[in-house]
Amino acid sequence: MTPAGGTLPAGRALRLAFLGTPDFAVPTLRRLIEGRHEVVTVVCQPDRRRGRGRHTSPAPVAEVALEAGLELLRPEKIGDARCAEALASCRPDLGVVVAFGQFIPKTIRELPALGYMINGHASLLPRHRGAAPIVGCLLAGDRETGVSAMRVEREMDAGPVARQHRIAIGENENAGELGARLSELTADVLELTLEEIAEGRVTWTPQDASLATEAPKIGAADALLDWNQDAETLARRVRAMAPAPGAFTWVGNDKLRILEAQFTLDPVDAAPGTLRIEPGGEPRIATSAGWLIPRVLQRPGKRAMPVEDFMRGRPIEDGAVVGGSGV
Question: Of 174, 194, 211, which closes a domain?
């Protein structure tokens, strides 16, 4: 399956427009800067308020582009006429997209000389299409995941795939740890795909839409732990939300983040949400099936700490019931 657009002499170095925003996209941009192809422009989200102080600062991709002296576009909407004009003036052969964060309209997708853009997506498509594939695979309990190099089309993450690379998910790996590995793998996969495109030997394989699953953007409500679920499901949610935004529960009116946890399927003799202190001082929380065993906890405005230190400082009493709405 060959995308619409022009052709280039086989083997020629490509002129690339790079579209990306967060830390996840940085390894790919750095790899492209170091490689044989030319990054002629970088497009990312505008400067936003970030961090605890909420100061306005550039996105991680913008910082790399500025450091490298690359032309940088930071539009509120990439489809705006001024952005399209600036992109066209750079005469890219191909667009490379990694975690850009905006819908890319057809006029922009087809603007490069080859007539299309490619995207590095952190899942084995068609599984986990959407904005949060790493969270999605952890919540689903997948044993493996990977990266797909695909062509960008109107329907999110539905374009044909050029190549996929798989990796196993660690038993206790959280979203931050897995994301760091997948960001490097994305750079590898896109680098190989670019060579296939430049040499005119890329092959596009349509996705099987009947196998598609969704991984939509997560919100604050997704991080709330529901103690009526089973312990294994809750442990997966803790991993999926770590290190940010961090899975949480309520202790009275106080929010308590659980950043690392294990679980056991030992019989439960208490209502879901009941905290028990084991003879050795280890806390565990009852679920609908089994117990969640917190390992790292954090109160608002405080540092995260191992559960042993937490319980020495401001312990939660044996028999307390956590959960609820916090009001």
Answer: 211
Please name the helix (run of DSSP H) or strand (run of DSSP E) that holds residue 73, with its range, or none.
strand 72-73
Tokens of 59: 């996105």
Cα R_g (the chain), whole angstroms: 23
**Residue pLDDT tens, the chain, 327 long:** 345 567 788 878 999 999 999 999 999 999 999 999 999 999 999 987 766 666 788 999 999 999 999 999 999 999 999 999 999 999 999 999 999 999 999 999 999 999 999 999 999 999 999 999 999 999 999 999 999 999 999 999 999 999 999 999 999 999 999 999 999 999 999 999 999 999 999 999 999 999 999 999 999 899 999 999 999 999 999 999 999 999 999 999 999 999 999 999 999 999 999 999 998 889 999 999 999 999 999 999 899 999 999 998 888 999 999 997 654
- Residues 121 and 96: beta-carbon distance below 8 Å: no
Same domain, 148 and 183: yes
For residues 43 and 29, give the distance between their C-alpha atoms in angstroms, rounded to a whole number: 11
Report the distance separating Cα 14 and Cα 40, nearest Å. 10
CA-CA distance, 35 to 28, in Å (whole number)? 10
Say if CB 165 and CB 146 are below 8 A apart.
yes
Do the domain assignments include residue 300?
A: yes
Q: Where are the beta strands (DSSP E) in 189-324?
A: 247-251, 254-264, 275-277, 283-286, 291-298, 305-306
Q: Please say whether the beta carbons of 71 and 135 come within 8 A.
A: no
Q: Which of 168, 184, 211 is the last residue of a domain?
A: 211
| DSSP annotation string for 136-168 | HHHHTT-SEEEEEEEE--SSTT-S-EEEEEEEE
- Residue range(s) defining the domain that contains residue 264: 220-313
Q: Domain tally for the chain?
A: 2
Query: 128 and 163 share a domain?
Result: yes
Q: How far apart are CA 119 and CA 161, in angstroms?
A: 9
Tell me: do 114 and 24 sit in the same domain.
yes
The HSE-up count of residue 208 (CA atoms within 13 Å, CB side) is 4
